[in-house]
């Protein structure tokens, strides 16, 4: 179960979910009831205080044997007011890049991971005709952070941004709402403009798509194809000509002739309520490769669980699926686990995805056995025998 030479091994995080104190973002304002949105169980608050403790977090990853760290930079910190760029925030994220390199970690930078500056949200966000212009201006301002960075993700899970963009559409009990076409168009435009800016700065650019492993029941193939079009495929198609595509996979969605099917009563579920299904990442990789035709990185994959042994089992199963794709000729170049840290899962700290736990009072970090396990896999560049 060897992996190709140069295969990247790492873990991912998102700024708002671990940094804490992201007060100028739309999500912070939603959490405290200052912007419309469903009430949350718990505000993000200090989160994991990784804004200050990022060096400790990176060191734990490097010491375990990982070689790549994907993290996002926060638009709301860099441009807290329309047109005003914080030099201090730019310097902060430049220090993060430098710290990663000093520890032997390749930094993979995400420019947008769900959160927006509150001014952008109040002016219509991705519904605004000016959205792509505003995003391109932000990316240009952030270019000093990307100096010498090879892999840059423009927008994290744009399909989730689109399917959640219409506040009038309720979230179904199973499956996802359809993508909002106007928002999808603006996201694709913003992505294409960001790709050119990143390439101009010497980096390789792509975006990451939340793949849902749509699996049709017999006779439901056309239904599944139509269902996946606005929710996934249009975003994979938009990656044609990019330098790479990111796949983010956690579970599957079975499709019947009437649409998504409920999870079987006897199926194992994770702390997010999703079906335990490690092979889902293989479906995502194959669909991304078939539609985009560019090198694939698994930029997120993991399991929300309090049972770390089960996390290891899940990760092994996922990596077996990744390896099968490689054996079939798919150009897969790296695997980044979600998440480096237990984090703020958009309303709650209860779903624990992390390789590293932390104390909510002292912020002391507690690496889990899964971190050591994944580090051993990375050092060997191979899965150990079961």
Can you walk through the features of this model?
- The protein is an alpha/beta fold.
- It has 13 helices and 13 strands.
- The chain has helices at 15-18, 26-31, 50-64, 75-78, 87-102, 118-122, 131-142, 158-163, 181-200, 221-237, 280-292, 308-327, 369-380, and strands spanning 8-12, 68-72, 106-110, 151-156, 204-210, 214-216, 245-249, 253-256, 259-260, 296-301, 332-338, 356-358, 365-367.
- It has an 8-stranded parallel beta barrel, surrounded by 7 helices.
- Helix 11 (280-292) runs parallel beside helix 12 (308-327).
- The longest helix is centred in the middle third of the chain and has 20 residues, at 181-200.
- The termini are close together.
- The model has no long low-confidence stretch (mean pLDDT 97).
In short:
The chain is an alpha/beta fold and about 375 residues long. Helix content is about 40%, strand content about 15%. β12 (about 355-360) and β13 (about 365) form a beta hairpin.
Count of DSSP helices?
Answer: 13
Strand order across the largest sheet: 1-2-3-4-5-7-10-11
Please give the share of residues in helix: 25-40%
Rg is 19 Å
Report the sheet-strand fraction.
15-25%
Major beta sheet summary: 8 strands, parallel, barrel
Stretches where pLDDT is under 50 for at least 5 consecutive residues are: none
* Class based on secondary structure composition and strand pairing: alpha/beta
Our measurement of the CA-to-CA distance between the termini, rounded to an integer number of angstroms, reads 11 Å
Shape: globular
Number of beta-strand segments: 13
Mean pLDDT: 97
Could you spell the SSE succession in H and E letters?
EHHHEHHEHHEHHEEHEEEHEHEEEH
